[in-house]
Amino acid sequence: MQRIGRSAGRPEGQPYALAAAFFLVCALALAFPWLSGRVTIPWDAKAHFFPQFAFLAHALHSGQSPFWTPNVFAGMPQIADPQSLIFSPFFLPAAALVPEPSFVLADAIVFAMLAMGGLALIAYFRDRGWSAAGGLLAALAFAFGGSAAWRIQHVGQIMSLAWLPVTLWLLARGLDRRSALYGAAAGAAAALLVLGRDQVAFLGVLMLSAYAAYRVATDESPKLSAVTPLAAGALVGLTIIAVPLAFTLELAAHSNRPEIDLDGAFKGSLPPGSFWTLISANMFGTDGPLKNFWGPPAGERDLFLARNMTNVYLGELTLVSLIAALGRRFLSNKEIRFFAAAALFFALYALGRYTPAFAFFYHLPGVDLWRRPADATFLLGATLAILAGYGFNLVERGEATPRTAWLVGAVAALFAVALLVAGVKGHLNQASWPLATSAIFAALAIALILATRDRLLRGPYLLAAVATLMSVDLTIGNGPNESTALPPEQFDALRVDGKDPVIAYLRGKLKETAGPDRRDRVELAAIDFHWPNASLVHGFDHDLGYNPIRLRLFEDVTGAGDHLALPEQRQFSKLYPSYRSVLSDMLGLRFIATGVPIEKIDGNYKHGDFVELTRIGDVHIYENPGAMPRVILATCAIHVDFAAMMKSGEWPEADYRETVLLETPPICHTRKDAPPATAKILSYENDRIVAEASAPPGGGWLVLHDVWHPWWFASLDGVEAPILRANVMFRAVAIPEGRHEVRFHFQPLRGLLTELSRRTSP
């Protein structure tokens, strides 16, 4: 059977294997600053994803489950968190093999994912019969251009992006050959893409679904013949994704993540001026000190974008190839018409509030889950890479023959307008050198296009020229900078064997205060961007953390925000109005480390509320002597309405070392002549906790000061016992008189099925 969708007249002897080899060599060269350990991917890659990676490795190598962590936000269901890396086919095996992940390993995995995507694009070009040099250009632009380069610190989105070309290649093969096997493989790859559970994954699935529908509608083969590969893909994909996606959807139901309204989404729009970075990566000073940056979103009102999020540079050869090939012949290929339409869609989507289009897109199912239209630049870069590679293919095959004067004039006009923009904005001197550097690469790109047109370069020499020009250009334009590469020493607090004195001091103090009933918590506030999740690396418990997803119950009770890097990011609530409060005691918040004096964070703090133990550099460390144990045995219960408490912010007057608040009728068993009630922890692991309690006559309640969650279950002396929600957000189990053993188990699958059954029952 003739393959569907392939270009006629495939060039014979195209060196695709050599193109792949050139790509891998270039990828190693471009990634070398990170792989050598000289720099490391900063920001979210270290502040959020590296601690998740370290926690996963530590859990696996200690024989514990990684499905729940007690180390942040008083407990989080990792199995349901899209950013936990548990379902990553790259990070999970690495965590299983390496007990102590390094920064270099984490960075290498990110680049390996991008390299996988680049190789898949070369394979896709091969199947389409397009030139190997065009495939090499597309692969390099995809993996080291645009948002893939400038937002490489957003590891979750990079994971999603990397699976897009793989899925496209396998899906195209499945439809070309009407193959159930390739269809199933495409479904598996699509499932791994969806496992990212972020906006890049969402938009990627939209594009792939549209591609499949477009192919079915336009292929000459009978429509029903496409059912087999598509059905096989759907079956395999749904099988892989069903359970993880169900966990995440259930977490969403219990989380703080609301629907994003249109105005909220507009705040993540890409300013139109960002597209000048297609001409020159650094005309706005994106790679220099922040104070010298003058491009968008600077000066834009109500936009929440970092400067690196607006850079879409893909290399001058990418831009020149697109200009050289544009024309009727370019759009005569039906797949290129699809990708041109996809690129337009993603550009309009990314622009958000700047065109009327996004207000329409917002009504597509699922769009209201995401807060930043500018995330579409990941997909825009991928589609432009394909279009540019195809354009280069047309030039190489002689099907596009750009005139020298026209090509030079078009490119020169773009640079002239860019200079005019810089001059009007008063930044001509600052922009001149980056634009001049880019102009040199643009001239070299024009020369390469013309040499290709005139068949002066062919085969391996053409591949070498493309590889060299793109690699040098992307090294200079998209190379290591403040947004993508910082010295690894800056993140010493995230190394288990690091020398950070604050971490060492806190770990020592936690050992000193440890006891049979205690597992004290700390807070790391306003120290630096990468500090809030350090507890995941070092295995101690932080009352807060860094994650855009938090349990709604915990956030409502504590006021916890998604980050804790700046003083103003430390939020309090009605029930938790100050560090000196009932809730901080219940949390067992024993030590607080702050990058500023504590009163600059807590306006209600009074001198002497806590003991200032020491100051290490700029970090102040305080102790809360009133922090309660992790487990207590309460002998008196007070009936309260938790919702009313959260609304009023009022705690009943009580001794909370003896009293528990429950949404059940009040009972008090305390007698003056009763033996003391005791509780202690026998073992404490991520997903299982064993405690022993001794209750006086009349019994009591074992209170565990970990956040309540419906996927936890308990047993009392081996017999299942209900976990009561206690003290607004903690856990309790009723205990009869005498000595008893209580076991808490995190059982996510059982909890999920129980929740779904309860929700669907009449």
Labels describing this entry:
762 residues, alpha+beta, 5-stranded antiparallel β-sheet, 24 helices, elongated, disordered N terminus, YfhO family protein, transmembrane
Please give a structural write-up:
- This protein is of the alpha+beta class.
- 46% of the residues lie in helices and 11% in strands.
- It is built from 24 helices and 17 strands.
- A five-stranded mixed sheet has the order 2-1-3-5-4.
- Strand 7, helix 23 and strand 8 form a beta-alpha-beta unit.
- Helix 1 packs parallel to helix 5, helix 2 crosses helix 3 and helix 5 packs antiparallel against helix 15.
- The N terminus is likely disordered.
- Keywords: Membrane, Transmembrane, Transmembrane helix.
- This is YfhO family protein.
- What proportion strand? 5-15%
Gyration radius, rounded: 29 Å
Query: What is the helical fraction, as a range of percent?
Result: 40-55%
Number of helical runs?
Answer: 24
Average pLDDT score: 94
Helical/strand content category: alpha+beta
**Quick one: how many beta strands?**
17
The outline comes out as elongated
Q: Ranges with pLDDT <50 over ≥5 residues?
A: 1-11
Task: Please give the oligomerization state of what you see.
Answer: single chain
The strands making up the biggest β-sheet line up spatially as 2-1-3-5-4
Instruction: Characterize the main sheet.
Output: 5 strands, mixed
The N- and C-terminal alpha carbons lie at a distance of: 54 Å
Organism: Methylocystis rosea
InterPro entries: Uncharacterised_YfhO
Protein name: YfhO family protein
Transmembrane segments: 16-35, 103-125, 132-150, 156-172, 179-195, 201-217, 224-247, 312-331, 338-364, 376-393, 405-425, 431-451
